[in-house]
């Protein structure tokens, strides 16, 4: 027998369901309101059970808000489970579960505003004597909590450059350090649909109070350029950048440009380093409110605590910014409990409507937002998740303003140090993807982040400190080195008032320079609201009157869905040539290298995977069994829509796990993502692979960064595999991607065809992009396939080949790095790219060999080329083949790889969108 208070939490008086504070096995007896209730089924920690009788079809409530409807008459003790939540728990092998769900999700009907019910109250009362913190005053507005030199890539094309440039200044004395802002956006040939958000966010980064100096870097021909940012700021009334800054256009070799850009930065370092912290008003604090890896207790402990601390900041004149639009759908009545005026209420609802429409264009609804970790930890649906997320807005705090993604905070005009001190509570439009949402808040001017988490999300931003609030003490103890605030103390008796005062003191200390847990860990990443492909309703996707999707995706063309193809090659031309290469014999196959792969299952474990792989490489965790260790950080797996885009993502991930060059592979989950380790176990089984071949580790479940690194080390070190043996082979053992960027002459087109003909003729495979310049060239098609007729895809994006030969990979866009990533997933072991007018970045896993026959490119970018193609088509083909063989034989490291100009980026296809 246990008392209810020992095992359950009632969100609010009047609710008819409670949250289990620990796992309750079937048969547990609970003393509830003077009676004994026997639980008929297992109820996991964070899941809900009935505490008052509920008739069939009546509402089940938390925080007095309906989140589901009873499927049958329910009595106290019954386990509340929806089809989705029951499936998620069943998949984890939990015993004692019911055979059928007991509830259905509350429909996402459009919220009807009752203007008469709105409360236009006053903002929370100001303190008698506003406080201060030690910050960095800025001429253009609020003070900074940090003082960084920021290297800002305008598009993904410059991301490798700013990352490498920052690395070379990583030990320089420069205030709080030199940091890169590398991201995935703006790298396609066309104007992206998210252009306004991109320019607003990047411009806002440059003006953020935590930036002590900024270098804005683009590449010649970028759609999203430094000039575009400068024009956007001017045209939209932004202030000028007052800190040391410069615009740098990459226009020569990588090393040359690194030296030139470095010379611009060096004079700024002592200036930034010499700037002291001084006492500034707490009104200068601009708090970004975020939640990630949420659980059932997020709305009980961490989110209310973040809200109360934010209210204290507002009392001192500061600002708090709530975001994540889709994670407030279903919580509209709560958010509008207290609002500045009718116009603000209407703009908030218009923002939600707009978000629903954009998601709907891609075939999705907000119900696709909750991740597998959310559901497993008790957030059955978007309504429950939204109500919990909205608790970051205390009922007594007024919603003052609604702004667009990356829009400057109200009252900030950049004129004098008093600018932006209007304070208050703001809502900013953004997706539920944590990192994409944070980027918008930083672009708006936030200088400190409150990040609440149930599972223990490990995430940080490069130049704005993150304070992480974890919902339960048990999770805090497990991840104490990565967490800042134990909000779980509220569940074990500490009053909210005492916890607020304690946390507010920590906030002031961190704002004044004390390092947060994330800063001590030394990792960070940036993801801006990713481009979406659809700009209006699509035939085959319709939106019903209540805002839900009527999905008819099967009626869409296969290319829109990126549906798999048969994987069989085209009948192209071949030749009898044989180019010898010194390959490796590994596990009875010939390959150019044997890779140890650490594959993050989502964006949030990406940077950790990168750090662990670097350590594993340095310390040779796998001994001589592998030739190198690789990690593939990316932006997917959580905070993005499911359906077609998820299928493409999963296909790409499996492509690298099963790649012929992968000898050992471990999957590293964050722990709360949609595509966790169990998800990929099932995917591997579907693909006919044995999950026991792979390693599995979890940042959250294994206890944080140090613990998970130890587990990864143990797995790679547990094998005693023989070293690969070098033996002669030929290029027929390989799969090669052929690409051309920029113009090329007829003889080069023929040369590339000749290269492909030899590789295919000797038993290998060649993969081309359906959107690439080669297939668009009549001369190449004729030389490769014997006809100038159009050639269609043989494989979907990232689909593995069913048989060797000539292949075309479907490509939904023109982004180079997404093309290279797709190539690798098909099984491509090396990419030969002819470049003109500039060079391309290398791919982390697949070597990219760059050669050119263009004299202008050779003279300007010669230091970045791996080979110069001269002579007629046959001579150019011989140069290309010999270079492929030299790289495959590990006698040549491609220039882009050697210089650090590398990346990895997964496409979202035509139907993927941020959520």
Automatic annotation (TrEMBL):
Keyword annotations of the record: Lyase
Domain D-galactarate/Altronate dehydratase C-terminal positions: 283-532
Top-level taxon of the source organism: Bacteria
Chain ranges of the D-galactarate/Altronate dehydratase second domain: 135-270, 597-708
Family: Belongs to the UxaA family.
The protein's name: Altronate dehydratase
Highest classification ranks of the organism: Bacteria, Bacillati, Actinomycetota, Actinomycetes, Propionibacteriales
